[in-house]
């Protein structure tokens, strides 16, 4: 359905009634009550988020609070606490980062992930992420999975509606490749991006109610009615959306990861892998003349659950051995020695530029930096395998 020869795997994640869900965690007495987060009715406040119990009364977000109170007189009104929501949101977004480096955060509670590189089925990945969000933050999230952003978002909207009767939907809906047309056809046209009230009205007058109807409408008629948007409308109705994810560029880090061909429990293999990754990371840090303040370890187990552990260093570093020692320490502390490991990753984050100019040979760290710079130059000149550190050679001999 897309021009790409490789079919993408895009997940859309949306936290369920996010602000309300956070408030429910903070205030036990709100549980399952109809309540809304937003401005006061006498100050022309609007509903930012409402609980599912409130939704049953017809309350929805963006509605004036005064109207919401008319629909549901017992509605409890909570003033928003944005700093709290922001903190929770960051926690969730960092869980998502365990699963893909390609993340487009759309809003405080919504993001796209490109997981095309993972071999597992999209709905299985979503289930794993959902469980992890639940266990680490106590929040409920819903997921739509498809081959592009448009379809993934629609899948999530449809999935959430289907499970509305529950307190939180926590739904997962996958649009199977090749069955996009079947999925789209019965949906109301206003579920499509770009179809607002005005467009919907015109479409209704044309007798177009569903996305299926829209696909049967001649393209030139749509262009005649809506101009350029008419072409886009037709494209979306046919499930075509080639837009890439707009990845947030200021999440800067240098990382390396390794997926094993079969799940392993061999500490020596992990150790070697971490050493190799540390060298690559150190080399790239020095090449960019930056230092890392945080070292992060990532472990994915055989069941795809993925965890990260990190250490904030007292001094930013660019030396392989410190990166390695830190990574290994994190690994030894975290791994339970029983779970099989599928992937291991190491990253250097919170990068700072040349933070201080040290005099040469000032201490052990500087001596190592000088040595490493010399090693980097040799590698650049003769290829990266010319120099191997003694510890690594020794280790390989042991095996
Ligand atoms: Mg949401």
Number of domains: 3
Main sheet, how many strands, which sense, barrel? 5 strands, mixed
Structural class: alpha+beta
Spatial strand sequence of the major β-sheet: 5-6-1-7-8
Query: Given the structure, what is the number of helices?
Result: 15
How would you characterize this protein structure?
There is one protein chain. With 399 residues, this protein is of the alpha+beta class. The chain folds into 3 domains: 171 residues, Reverse transcriptase/Diguanylate cyclase domain (Alpha-Beta Plaits); 53 residues, 5' to 3' exonuclease, C-terminal subdomain (DNA polymerase, domain 1, Orthogonal Bundle), CATH 1.10.150.20; 146 residues, Dna Ligase, domain 1, CATH 3.30.1490.100. Helices cover 42% and strands 21% of the residues. The chain is built from 15 helices and 12 strands. A 5-stranded mixed sheet has the order 5-6-1-7-8. Helix 10 packs across helix 11 and helix 12 runs antiparallel to helix 13. The radius of gyration is 26 Å and the shape is globular. The structure holds magnesium ion. The site of magnesium ion has 5 residues, from strand 1.
Short précis:
This protein is an alpha+beta fold. The chain is built from 15 helices and 12 strands.
Task: Please describe the topology of this protein.
Elements: E1 10-15, H1 18-26, E2 35-38, E3 47-50, H2 52-55, H3 65-71, E4 76-78, H4 82-96, E5 103-107, E6 110-114, H5 122-137, E7 141-146, H6 149-162, E8 172-174, H7 180-184, H8 197-205, H9 211-215, H10 219-226, H11 228-237, E9 253-264, H12 267-287, E10 290-301, E11 306-317, H13 320-334, E12 341-353, H14 364-382, H15 390-398
Parallel strand pairs: 2-4, 7-8
Antiparallel strand pairs: 1-6, 1-7, 2-3, 5-6, 9-12, 10-11, 10-12
Helix pairs in contact: 4-5, 10-11, 12-13
The structure holds magnesium ion (MG).
